[in-house]
Amino acid sequence: MSLDELSHYLDASPSPWHAVDTARGLLEGFAEVDERDDWAELPAEGYAIRDGALIAWRLPADHRADDPLRIAGAHTDSPCLRVKPHPDETAHGWRQLRVEVYGGILNNSWLDRDLGVAGRLVTDGGDTVLVDVRAPIARAPPLAVHLDREVNKGLTLDPQQHLAPVWGVDSGTAPAFDEWIGERAGLDAPPRWWELCLYDVQPAAVLGADGSLYASGRLDNLLSCWAALTALTAPDAPRHAALVVLNDHEEVGSASTVGAAGPFLETVLERLVASRGGGRDALHRALRRSACVSADNAHAVHP
User: Is the dihedral of CA 47, 49, 50, 52 positive or negative?
Assistant: First the structure.
């Protein structure tokens, strides 16, 4: 476990779907199982992926259906700006992107940032493709002080009016956003649909004169995702069934098929118990003996 490994995970995971894809790389030796398949022959070390969520497990060799479970939960999504379905906008010769606020962001923290774009695209054929343009392609500029003399007395931002980043000038020949992002993903045609996050391309870094501080985007909550995965893949064999649950959509209420309020964990637990010959009664006995830690970041102090 090292800060370099943490930094690699953070930098390689600019969207929930990249966070899951990067997690897959950390689960060396674990077998991926498909929810659409029969789980009768379930591997002792395995994982399942549902969109931007992942559940991984390690079961002791003598694990029984009603044995206790040790579960660590975290989430793959982070507050950000997301690109709307019809994002192209032009104002005063500037090309802008229409965006929506995802989660509880600090509006002013997104001003004057070099923004890349990452997420997933859906093609004409229904295939899903990950894309990550790790370059400063957009920026949300604030007004210059001589255009707003009162700005230092308090800044109030309207997300729709003031956070739409500029990403070029209107030359009349530049491609629309869907064409541009499709080309960056290597597609032959513009995507039919997308979920795309804008993110600060500045990488994770150790800072401070004594190197005692650490800064990165998406620490909430990829830090907990990485810590849970690192613990799960530690060389020591687990004494109990160990599970990591990385849900999506926590920042917007968790009520989805991949959120913590959805059915993903419940169905996986049912199938884990069933693979060991147990039914609903065994599942409830196991849950009564089990423990689940919800690992997240919280604000503590400010100097």
Answer: positive
Q: Assign residue 172 a region: left if phi > 0, alpha if psi is -120 to 50, beta otherwise? A: left
What are the CA-CA distances from residue 56 to residues 79, 119, 120, 295 (Å)? 24, 22, 22, 16
What confidence tens digit (pLDDT) does each residue in 167-197 have?
A: 999 988 899 999 999 999 999 999 999 999 9
Work out the number of other CB atoms within 10 angstroms of the CB of residue 43.
Answer: 16
Which residue is listed with tokens 């597609």? 187
- Angle ∠(70,247,36) on CA atoms, nearest 5: 90
Cα 132 to Cα 119: distance, rounded to the nearest angstrom: 7
- 243/231 Cα distance (integer angstroms): 10
| Phi/psi at 274 (5° precision) | -65, -35
**Per the structure block, which two tokens stand in for 154?**
């308090």
Neighbours of 110 (CB within 10 A): 23
Answer yes or no: are the C-beta atoms of 13 and 223 closer than 8 Å. no
Neighbours of 195 (CB within 10 A): 19
Contact 53, 74 (CB under 8 A): no
Residue 109 is classified by DSSP as G
- Which tens digits make up the pLDDT trace of 9-40? 999 999 999 999 999 999 999 999 999 999 98
**DSSP category for residue 208:** S
Q: Which of 275, 297, 18 lies closest to 130, judged by CA?
A: 18
Whole-number Å distance between alpha carbons of 119 and 136: 16
> Phi and psi at residue 29, in whole multiples of 5°?
90, -10
* Cβ(216)–Cβ(9) below 8 Å: no
Which one-letter amino acid corresponds to residue 261? A
Q: Which residues of 156-186 are buried (b: 16+ CB within 10 A; e: fewer)?
A: eeeeeebbbbebeeeeeeeeebbebbbeebe
DSSP state of 212: -
